[in-house]
Design brief:
seven-stranded parallel sheet, single chain
């Protein structure tokens, strides 16, 4: 099923059976998603056709599958969350004012080989990466050959032990 290159307030993929959804253009600029993306258990969202990019102001929820290709997911809202385990090629969140990105406890955020993770706050304006429970860790795996651009972050309840040895320490 193709997803037209239009402006969406939210994108919820909730099929009755196993269904693959393909972006037909970049969801950036005037077509950025101003709300949430929800990928339900029987859905697969793919950006691989032309490695389309996604800019998202809301939350990312993945109970199904996401096939990133070499596209970038940019989180540009405030008080955002990532729910569900997801492998991104490029993941970007940069803030000028203090903000929190909440990641679901016990779930894994992975950066693929060749990809880039960019997580940036500013001097005196940290980007906080926090667990959804505050008492159980989320997992952060960065593959060999990935690039890290991480600065001015405060991280709590996270486990990066699954990252390639060449990627430790994470910051």
């Amino acid at each position: 099923t193709n997803i037209a290159n239009l402006s969406y307030s939210s994108l919820q993929l909730t099929p009755g059976g196993a269904t693959s959804y393909s972006l037909m253009g970049h969801q950036t600029g005037g077509n950025a998603i101003t709300g949430n993306i929800t990928i339900d258990a029987s859905a697969t969202l793919t950006t691989t056709g032309s490695n389309y990019n996604i800019t998202l102001a809301g939350n990312w929820s993945n109970s199904g599958s996401f096939t990133a290709g070499t596209g970038t997911v940019t989180l540009n809202g405030t008080s955002q969350a990532i729910n569900g385990s997801t492998t991104f090629y490029d993941l970007t969140k940069s803030v000028a004012s203090a903000d929190t990105l909440t990641i679901e406890a016990s779930k894994t955020i992975s950066i693929a080989t060749g990809g880039t993770v960019t997580l940036n706050g500013a001097s005196g304006q940290l980007l906080t990466l926090a667990s959804s429970t505050g008492s159980s860790a989320w997992n952060f795996n960065v593959a060999a050959g990935a690039t890290k651009a991480i600065s001015y972050v405060s991280v709590s309840w996270s486990d990066a032990s699954g990252s390639d040895a060449s990627q430790k320490s994470i910051a």
